[in-house]
């Protein structure tokens, strides 16, 4: 189980990313559509003035049950440990252990 503080910090980042998502997208569209270098520079300065944690690149995928940051499966939102346990107990529909 991950530390509670790290999980809460990640939740705050997700809220911040969602709050600045529209402004960030509009600034990026303006950069791509502008023709002069001076316009691109001024718009990029506005983009850089936004909080760093509002960039979606800074988010980390975590397991929805345990909060584990590594070895997550995007399709399920679970880490490999939890995925294996849930597959064995038949809690995930359509997932079965392969026998070979």
UniProtKB/TrEMBL annotation:
Q: Does the keyword Plastid apply?
A: yes
Q: Where in the cell is it found?
A: Plastid, Chloroplast
Membrane-crossing segments per the record = none
Q: Entry's PROSITE patterns?
A: RIBOSOMAL_S14
Alphabetic keyword roster: Chloroplast, Plastid, Ribonucleoprotein, Ribosomal protein, RNA-binding, rRNA-binding
Tell me yes or no: is RNA-binding among this UniProt entry's keywords. Answer: yes
Q: Which Gene3D superfamilies match?
A: 1.10.287.1480
Q: Which GO terms describe its cellular component?
A: chloroplast; small ribosomal subunit
Give one GO term, molecular function aspect: structural constituent of ribosome
Please, one GO biological process term? translation
Q: Which InterPro entries does its entry note?
A: Ribosomal_uS14 (IPR001209), Ribosomal_uS14_bac/plastid (IPR023036), Ribosomal_uS14_CS (IPR018271)
In the record, the note on similarity to other proteins reads: Belongs to the universal ribosomal protein uS14 family.
Q: How does it assemble?
A: Part of the 30S ribosomal subunit.
State what this protein does: Binds 16S rRNA, required for the assembly of 30S particles.
The molecule here is called: Small ribosomal subunit protein uS14c
Species: Asplenium nidus (Bird's nest fern)
């Amino acid at each position: 189980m991950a530390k509670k503080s790290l999980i809460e910090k990640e939740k705050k980042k997700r809220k911040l990313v969602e709050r600045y998502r529209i402004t960030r997208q509009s600034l990026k569209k303006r950069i791509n559509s502008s023709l002069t270098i001076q316009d691109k520079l001024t718009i990029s300065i506005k983009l850089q003035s936004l909080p760093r944690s509002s960039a979606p690149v800074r988010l980390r995928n975590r397991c929805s049950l345990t909060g584990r940051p590594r070895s997550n499966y995007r399709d399920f939102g679970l880490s490999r440990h939890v995925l294996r346990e849930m597959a064995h107990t038949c809690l995930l529909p359509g997932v079965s252990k392969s026998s070979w």
